[in-house]
């Protein structure tokens, strides 16, 4: 008696199964991997590039084909391609480990990108680098939720991230125009929302205000403008996120990385005369003794002289010399080495001394 060996089998390999339940019955279709998402997003239009076969199954792995009578009873049609399209759109997709890992990694990076676009460092008003935020999210054990959007997860997790690094939502910039009769009401509303009025002018019996406020106050501001009589107000969003300018006092508002010396110089003028001076008295720059007949090496930027060539070369590598070069490019006077060492804002250090901010500068 010969052994029964089935023939004519067509085995499906490299498949992704999409399952669909309806009327108490389960149906499955066999698709190529990494194609279902492209079909649902509209990137792929050809269904033959998505389906390995238009045959519907009760169980793909066992090769059990669904009966046409059952298809007509459940879906109202026996057209397999039409049923496959419905399952592609609404069915539950089988995701492999690598696909799931790639999806989570992309979503994790999207969350960090949202934080870069919508948040700033409150100390200088500038966005954080993407790599730093990704590392910070990892440090506070952020886990991705595949059922939420990247923006929703980023804003929901922001309070937890604030416990690790100084970060806040970037303010919005709005342009508002109202009639003069609503001027006092508008300014009172902006003050209640703790907004920052940047400009204000009156033209043709209308008040034009440019202000910055927290994104959470936008709906309230929009409702106020809408509540005015017809033609009484207009609101326009100038910038969704103000980045590159600080909500701190002006002395910390710098225009770019190369302008830090300018801002620092403004701070130093009072800090050297204030509480920082109480920690260590400024000492005059000691001029090295010059031996008669010896060669003198001079730095015109810092105004110091050296009798040893090695010391002169090392001076040009110092942070003090680099700082004075930045001041010189801005047309500002150079600072002495003692002043540079005393003020940490310049890059120096006072050791264990406590630094107190200058009240005059902050106010």
Automatic annotation (TrEMBL):
InterPro entries: Ribosome_mat_SBDS_N_sf, Sdo1/SBDS, Sdo1/SBDS-like, SDO1/SBDS_C, SDO1/SBDS_central, Sdo1/SBDS_central_sf, SDO1/SBDS_N, Znf_C2H2_type
GO biological process per UniProt: cytosolic ribosome assembly
UniProt subcellular location: Cytoplasm; Nucleus
One Gene Ontology term, aspect cellular component: cytoplasm
Domain of life: Eukaryota
Keyword Cytoplasm listed: yes
Primary residence: cytoplasm
Domain C2H2-type: 297-326
Alphabetic keyword roster: Cytoplasm, Metal-binding, Nucleus, Ribosome biogenesis, Zinc, Zinc-finger
Complex formation: Associates with the 60S ribosomal subunit.
Family listed: Belongs to the SDO1/SBDS family.
Protein known as: C2H2-type domain-containing protein
């Amino acid at each position: 008696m010969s052994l029964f060996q089935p023939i004519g089998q067509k085995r499906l390999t490299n498949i992704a199964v999409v399952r669909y339940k309806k009327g108490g019955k389960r149906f499955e279709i066999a698709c190529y991997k990494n194609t279902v998402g492209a079909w649902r997003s509209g990137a792929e239009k050809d269904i033959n590039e998505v389906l390995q076969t238009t045959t519907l199954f009760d169980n793909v792995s066992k090769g059990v084909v669904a009966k046409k009578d059952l298809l007509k009873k459940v879906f109202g049609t026996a057209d397999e391609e039409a049923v496959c399209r419905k399952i592609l759109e609404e069915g539950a997709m089988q995701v492999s480990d690598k696909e799931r890992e790639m999806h989570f990694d992309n979503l994790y990076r999207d969350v960090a990108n949202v934080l870069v676009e919508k948040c700033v460092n409150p100390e200088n008003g500038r966005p954080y680098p993407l790599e730093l935020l990704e590392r910070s999210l990892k440090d506070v054990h952020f886990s991705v939720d595949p059922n939420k959007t990247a923006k929703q997860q980023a804003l929901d997790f922001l309070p937890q991230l604030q416990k690790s690094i100084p970060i806040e939502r970037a303010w919005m910039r709005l342009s508002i125009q109202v009639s003069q009769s609503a001027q006092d009401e508008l300014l009172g509303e902006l003050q209640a929302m703790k907004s920052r009025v940047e400009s204000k002018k009156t033209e043709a019996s209308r008040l034009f205000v440019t202000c910055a406020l927290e994104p959470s106050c936008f709906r309230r501001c929009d409702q106020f403008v809408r509540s005015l009589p017809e033609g009484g107000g207009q609101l326009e969003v100038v910038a969704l996120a103000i980045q590159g300018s600080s909500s701190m006092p002006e002395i910390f508002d710098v225009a770019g990385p190369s302008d830090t010396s300018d801002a620092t110089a403004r701070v130093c003028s009072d800090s050297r005369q204030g509480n920082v001076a109480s920690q260590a008295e400024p000492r005059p720059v000691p001029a090295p003794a010059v031996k008669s007949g010896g060669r003198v090496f001079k730095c015109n930027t810092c105004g110091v002289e050296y009798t040893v060539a090695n010391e002169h070369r090392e001076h040009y590598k110092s942070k003090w010399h680099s700082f004075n070069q930045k001041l010189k490019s801005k047309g500002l006077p150079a600072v002495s080495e003692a002043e540079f060492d005393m003020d940490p804002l310049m890059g120096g250090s006072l050791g264990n001394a406590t630094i107190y901010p200058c009240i005059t500068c902050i106010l």
